[in-house]
Amino acid sequence: MKTASVTESKNGLSGLLRQVRSGHSVLILDRNVPVAIISPVTAGALPPDLHLEGLERQGLVRRPRRGGDLSKRLAALPLPRLPKGTSAVAAVLADRGDDR
E strand or H helix at 3, and its extent? Predict the structure, then answer.
């Protein structure tokens, strides 16, 4: 792991970021005391919106342009109702084809 002082980090941040992009981590020292590590970001560490932005920029996904939050629209829909006299368990078993 490369180390850099705060002064070196301020003066050469672009170079340090190039190293981080290539997979290396950098330990930042303030008067020889470790204070931070700059390391590559993994997809799992990104907040979902930033991860989606990156995928969108690469052309791998396309987000909807309108319609708002789908979960809110789905929550507003009425719950499905079984026909009167129908058992939910029987409906599930029939759906699975498991008539035990």
Answer: strand 2-5
